[in-house]
Every structure is written in structure tokens, then in C-alpha cells.
Design brief:
Helix content is about 20%, strand content about 30%. The protein contains 7 helices and 26 strands. The protein starts with 6 loop residues before the first helix and ends in a 10-residue tail after the last strand. Pfam families: MoCF_biosynth (PF00994), MoeA_C (PF03454), MoeA_N (PF03453).
């Protein structure tokens, strides 16, 4: 095992070590945002019948082929069709039927002319009225054909597709009320540190609130997993060993924060090594160089740093892709855009640097990024107040204002292509 590996190597290692969760069937509403685990087919034609796309008059297009402003064609209205109704009669020469949006097109009709451009010569435009047309209509005008969206038996959502809110409506129309998806991974979140107290307590001397557990649980939830915040673990090898061993038995993925470096009270590396197989200890990135990963009892265990920003970046760059892999997602990278630095960036580091920053658009249409003044790895606040991470590649020289850099959009889904 090499001492330090690249971010790409680390991601491939973690994602390659996880297994997809088993398939379960969920109700249609619960499937939104999740990945279909099998092809889904429609049980009927969608739409099941040809219907009007708007309020108007159903007719045979040939009847008004000669219509013009100077020589309008008049037709007698012989009936009305509301949504949900069916016209059982026949439409003869010189006749038409008033029709509402979504109503079934009469068998004799092949076009619909919208109500607003039809003149009323006699009556009120309803049954018995005489109406006039001043322009021809094409066959199929304002008509939605039967099976326009899907045919009976046709696959409408393929395995691997992410189901959107619109997709839920589409599947409902196709009669699909349950969807096979990968089960959401259950993630154990364990904060280590004898200095930690629950957020419900006011910290005493030398103590701080446990914010990491809540942030990492939120990250897991946003990645589609089901987080479980476990009790705080004190800084001893035995306490952490017992907590990790128990969590590895009961959950699909274990995330710890704190104790990932090489200090006297940093135990996650020896714990994973004793309980299972230690696969990774450091990654060439900043913040978050200390990233521990291994397998315990067949369960992935990831030890994040205790510094909040380092833990957050490590989760988003390494754990989130793994959790998405377990659920069948195929897109793993958040979208990136090129942006112009608004201030000099003086950092020089052999590691890849992720600067918390705010992305805006300049008057010339170019994206601009302003790095947060405080890039401390010990703070969540700058992440809350920014909307991207600007990337300084490994070994980069100091970058002056105006330099173009890549920016990761963490709040934009991986499936979006920019």
C-alpha cells in the first residue's frame, strides 16, 4: 500500500470496493430521484386514444380546404364532446363537432381548429350553431395521436435511468405503480473525540459540540443513503475498535470522523488494520490529506479527518461516489465550469487544493469565482456561505486574479452536463 495516492486512484479504489445493494420494489412516489433497476414497460398505449390538444372544433380537414378570409367555409355544429366523453355519431358533409381539450377525437374527424379563430355566424357556438372557418387545416392539426408517447408493451424507462418527477407522472400514465430500485445504503456515522459533546449540550471547558456527525449524515442523506448517527466514541483504541466492529456488522457503510492522522490519539488506521484490510491512508488533496479506507467484515469503513472542511471535502469527493455506485448511479462527477479568479491566489502546494468559493457571472457572460477569505479546514461556515470549490491542480504556481480555473458545483446533480 502506497503512502499517498491521487484523488482519482482513491476514488477508483473506494468505488471498486463496494457492492450494489439488493433490489427492492418501492411505490412510485418513493422512486423519484432513484435509479430503475430493471426496464419498465407501459401496459397501454399512451395516450390510449387520439384526442384534442385544445378547445376547438373537430372536423374533416377536407371540408375546409378552400377556406379563406374572402371565402369562409361554414359548418353546422352537431354535437359537443367534453373531456371523458365519447361522440358516438357520425360527422356528415358540412358538419363539425365542438370539442374540449383532452376529449376523444370522433372517428370521422382528422383535425381540430382552435376555438379562438373560428367565427360564430348563428347561435352561441354550441350544438345547432353555424360556425365559419377562414383558413384550411392540415390533417392531424391540434390532434394528439393514440400511442404518441408510448405503445403498449414498449419499454418507457430503461434500467439505469434516474427517475425524475416528470418520470413519475409518465410511469403513472403507463400503469407502473411500483419500481424496482437498489435499496438505499444504511450508513453508520461515528464521531470520535473525547472533547465532543452532543449539540444539545452547552460545551464546558475544553469541549466542543459534535457537528461533524450531523454534517456527514446530511451528506449521506443527500447522496441517497439512510444515515444513522451513532454515539460519540472516546479517544481510545478499544472504544473505537468495538464501535467500528459493531457498526460493520449492522450497516452497509461506516463513516468515522476524527483520528485519521498520526497523532497519539488517532486510532482509525490501526483499528481498520486489526479488524480487516486497510487499503488507503492518505490522498494527495487539501483539505483532507488524511483519508482512511478499508474493509471490515465485508463492510466498507471510511475514516475522515476531524477538521470539518476536510471531512466534508473527503466525503463529497470519495464517499458520495461510492454510495451512488451502490445504488446504481452511473454519473459520479459533479459538473464543473471554468471561471475567472477575482483575486490573487497565492497558495502553492504539491497537493490538489479545493478552495471554497462563490461563483457569479460577470457582465461579459464569463463565470467568476471569489475564494472565501477564510480557507481554514476547521470551519463549516465558509462552505455554507459559498456555492462551489475552485480547483488548484497539484504543483500549481500562485495564480493571479484573472486566471481561469475549474470550479466544482456541488449542489448540481452529477447527471447535469454543462
Amino acid at each position: 500500500m502506497r503512502e499517498m495516492i491521487s484523488l482519482e486512484e482513491a476514488r477508483a479504489l473506494v468505488c471498486g470496493a463496494v457492492e450494489p445493494t439488493e433490489v427492492e420494489r418501492v411505490g412510485l412516489l418513493d422512486a423519484v430521484g432513484r435509479v430503475a433497476a430493471a426496464d419498465l414497460a407501459s401496459d397501454i398505449n399512451v395516450a390510449p386514444f387520439a384526442h384534442s390538444a385544445m378547445d376547438g372544433f373537430a372536423l374533416r380537414a377536407a371540408e375546409i380546404a378552400s377556406a379563406a378570409e374572402e371565402t369562409p367555409v361554414c359548418l353546422r355544429v352537431i354535437g359537443e364532446i367534453g373531456a371523458g366523453d365519447v361522440f358516438e355519431g357520425s360527422i356528415g358533409e358540412g358538419e363539425c363537432v365542438r370539442i374540449m381539450t383532452g376529449a376523444c377525437l370522433p372517428a370521422d374527424a382528422d383535425a381540430v381548429v382552435k376555438y379562438e379563430i373560428v367565427g360564430v355566424e348563428e347561435g352561441d357556438g354550441k350544438t345547432g350553431s353555424l360556425v365559419s372557418f377562414t383558413a384550411p387545416a392540415k390533417v392531424g392539426a391540434n390532434v394528439r395521436a393514440a400511442g404518441e408517447e408510448a405503445r403498449a408493451g414498449e419499454v418507457v424507462v430503461r434500467a439505469g435511468e434516474v427517475i425524475s418527477a416528470a418520470g413519475v407522472g409518465f410511469l403513472a400514465g403507463c400503469g407502473v405503480l411500483e419500481v424496482p430500485v437498489r435499496r438505499r445504503p444504511r450508513v453508520a456515522v461515528i464521531a470520535t473525540g473525547s472533547e465532543l459533546v452532543p449539540p444539545s449540550e452547552v460545551p464546558g471547558p475544553g469541549k466542543i459540540r459534535n457537528s461533524n456527525s450531523f454534517a456527514m449524515a446530511a451528506c449521506a442523506q443527500r447522496a441517497g443513503a439512510v444515515p444513522h448517527i451513532l454515539p460519540i466514541v472516546e479517544d481510545t483504541f478499544e472504544a473505537l475498535r468495538d464501535a467500528v466492529a459493531a457498526a460493520a456488522r449492522d450497516y452497509d457503510f461506516v463513516v468515522t470522523t476524527g483520528g485519521a492522522a498520526n497523532g497519539d490519539f488517532d486510532f482509525i488506521k490501526p483499528v481498520v488494520a486489526e479488524l480487516g484490510e486497510l487499503k488507503m491512508t492518505t490522498v494527495n488533496m487539501r483539505p483532507g490529506k488524511a483519508q482512511t479506507f478499508g474493509i471490515v467484515n465485508g463492510t466498507p469503513v471510511f475514516g475522515l479527518p476531524g477538521n470539518p472542511a476536510a471531512a466534508y471535502v473527503g466525503f463529497e469527493m470519495l464517499i458520495r461516489p461510492a454510495l451512488r455506485t451502490m445504488q446504481g448511479y452511473t454519473f459520479m462527477n459533479h459538473p464543473t465550469v471554468r471561471a475567472r479568479l477575482t483575486a490573487d491566489e497565492k497558495n502553492r502546494d504539491p497537493r490538489r487544493i479545493f478552495l471554497r468559493g462563490t461563483l457569479t457571472r460577470a457582465t461579459d457572460g464569463t463565470f467568476e469565482v471569489t475564494p472565501s477569505r477564510n480557507q481554514s479546514s476547521g470551519l463549516f461556515g465558509p462552505i455554507q456561505k459559498t456555492n462551489c470549490m475552485a480547483i488548484m491542480p497539484e504543483g500549481t504556481e500562485p495564480q493571479p486574479a484573472g486566471s481561469m480555473v475549474d470550479c466544482i458545483l456541488l449542489d448540481v446533480p452529477e447527471e447535469v452536463c454543462l
